[in-house]
């Protein structure tokens, strides 16, 4: 292997081939090629605009760069490890195409501000795509919620039956998590959308460049105001990885619930064949692979966040080659989050069915209406703590007798407290128990219908 011609005459011998492979990032940073070309086009236009090169030279550079873009799209540009990285690969090809003028592209620029520009252009696009996937996920949740306002489901705390709730209310909790994810990515976008181009290697440049011009051409809100910060800042990558980690936290919580719900013990949902797999040995099995994979994949995204934090910690200013390690973390995170959002949306839309009869029976077979008995007494003037203790007693005797609260006779209720009347039966029926929680943000059907309207409005924001 020969030394890439790009190095200065300072070097006397070629790089050790194993070290060349170790050093090279082309195998993965080729993913940035279109962003690299877009950044270089803006740089070339700026060089011409400021008179650093001639207008004709600028046009030649832009045409050559666009030719490389086309060659890449056609599958005809596949640089190998000798190119080291995508930036060298494009510059080398440009010089093949445009001749000596190609060598002018790198005037007043460094790979340090170049790679920072590419990464931000990449992430801007990917954040937009992930936000679209989040919208799709929210739409599926909202559609399901609209169908299931009056479908009851046991609500849990400590994974113990607590109070029955509307299934729509449960689904809308995930809608709101996704809403925060969508908003958070929008906020992070603002900090991704700053241009490091023109920061040079670290200190700016001796040429009369126009950083505002390139920032504007590339759609950045503004250039970085400090060149050292511009080339060494990867805060935006950490923020993105943290936001991606939260998306994975939300998806993995939902996945865990779906896995539980699909178990024989819960039997709240049935999985459709399109989204479940069988066992190679146990013919009776139908496995929830999709939510299991989503739950499992969360680990790698959290890992990338940790890796990036450690990568940046203690790194002296300005650019260090350590920063080359940011790319695989970002690329894998983007790919993983998109795939998990997509798979979860498909699973919810087409891959599972809520077993409404079973859910309706489930909320009638426990003591999750006990709070409502206490509330009933409290509404009739009995101090809540006293009512709470009375109901605890009746739960205990009912459990011993193998009865539910709805099985107690009126005489038994009145023996407990004279305030009980015939309307206690209505008050502890699951439907009423849910409907009665009509406080703002609660599970009462009226509140849930309001929440659906709010969600529809949230979905329209952009
Ligand atoms: N491949 C490098 C990276 O990803 C590009 C920047 C290299 N800069 C340098 N000074 N060696 O970070």
Please give a structural write-up.
The protein has 462 residues and is mainly alpha-helical. 61% of the residues lie in helices and 5% in strands. The strands form three sheets. A two-stranded antiparallel sheet has the order 1-2. The protein has a two-stranded parallel ribbon with strand order 3-4. Helix 3 (33-49) runs antiparallel to helix 4 (55-73) and helix 10 runs parallel beside helix 12 (326-351). Arginine binds next to helix 6.
Task: Name its key features.
462 residues, mainly alpha, two-stranded antiparallel sheet, 19 helices, binds arginine
Bound small molecules, deduplicated: arginine
Q: Give the neighbour order of strands across the main sheet.
A: 1-2
Spans where pLDDT lies below 50 across 5 or more residues: none
Give the oligomeric state of the chains in this entry, treating copies of one chain as homo and distinct chains as hetero: single chain
The percent range for strand residues is under 5%
Helix content: 55-70%
Q: What gross morphology would you assign?
A: elongated
- The number of E-state strands comes to 6
The secondary-structure class comes to mainly alpha
Provide the gyration radius in Å.
31 Å
Mean pLDDT, rounded to whole units? 96
- What separation lies between the terminal Cα atoms? 51 Å
Biggest sheet statistics: 2 strands, antiparallel
SSE pattern: HHHHHHEEHEHEHHEHHEHHHHHHH
The number of helical elements comes to: 19
């Amino acid at each position: 292997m020969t030394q890439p011609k790009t190095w200065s005459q300072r070097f006397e011998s070629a790089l050790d081939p194993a070290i060349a492979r170790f050093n090279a990032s082309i195998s993965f940073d080729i993913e940035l090629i279109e962003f690299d070309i877009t950044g270089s086009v803006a740089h070339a236009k700026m060089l011409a605009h400021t008179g650093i090169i001639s207008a004709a030279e600028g046009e030649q550079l832009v045409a050559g760069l666009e030719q490389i873009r086309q060659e890449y799209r056609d599958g005809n540009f596949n640089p190998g490890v000798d190119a080291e990285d995508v930036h060298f690969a494009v510059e080398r090809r440009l010089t093949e195409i445009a001749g000596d003028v190609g060598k002018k592209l790198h005037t007043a620029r460094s790979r340090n501000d170049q790679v920072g520009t590419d990464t931000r252009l990449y992430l801007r696009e990917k954040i937009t795509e992930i936000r679209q996937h989040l919208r799709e996920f929210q739409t599926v949740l909202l559609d399901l919620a609209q169908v299931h306002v009056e479908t009851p489901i046991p609500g849990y705390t400590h994974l113990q039956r607590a109070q029955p709730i509307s299934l729509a209310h449960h689904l809308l909790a995930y809608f709101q998590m996704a809403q925060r994810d969508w908003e958070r990515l929008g906020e992070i976008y603002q900090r991704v959308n700053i241009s490091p181009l023109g920061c040079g290697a670290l200190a700016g440049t001796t040429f009369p460049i126009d950083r505002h011009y390139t920032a504007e051409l590339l759609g950045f809100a503004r250039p970085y105001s400090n060149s050292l910060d511009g080339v060494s800042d990867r805060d935006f990558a950490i923020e993105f990885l943290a936001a991606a980690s939260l998306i994975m936290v939300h998806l993995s919580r939902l996945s865990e619930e779906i896995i539980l719900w699909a178990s024989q013990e819960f039997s709240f949902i049935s999985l459709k064949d399109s989204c479940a797999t069988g066992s190679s040995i146990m013919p009776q099995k139908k496995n929830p692979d999709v939510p299991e994979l989503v739950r499992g994949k969360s680990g790698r995204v959290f890992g990338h966040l940790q890796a990036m934090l450690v990568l940046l910690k203690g790194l002296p200013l300005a650019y260090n080659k350590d920063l080359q390690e940011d790319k695989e973390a970002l690329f894998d995170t983007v790919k993983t989050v998109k795939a998990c959002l997509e798979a979860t949306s498909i699973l919810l839309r087409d891959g599972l069915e809520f077993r409404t009869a079973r859910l309706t029976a489930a909320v009638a077979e426990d003591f999750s209406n006990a709070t409502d008995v206490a509330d009933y007494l409290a509404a009739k003037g009995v101090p809540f703590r006293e009512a709470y203790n009375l109901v605890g007693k009746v739960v205990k005797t009912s459990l011993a007798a193998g009865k539910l609260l709805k099985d107690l006779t009126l005489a038994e209720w009145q023996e407990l407290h004279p305030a009980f009347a015939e309307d206690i039966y209505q008050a502890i029926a699951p439907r009423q128990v849910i409907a009665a929680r009509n406080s703002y943000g609660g599970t009462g059907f009226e509140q849930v219908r309001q929440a659906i309207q709010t969600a529809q409005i949230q979905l329209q924001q952009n």
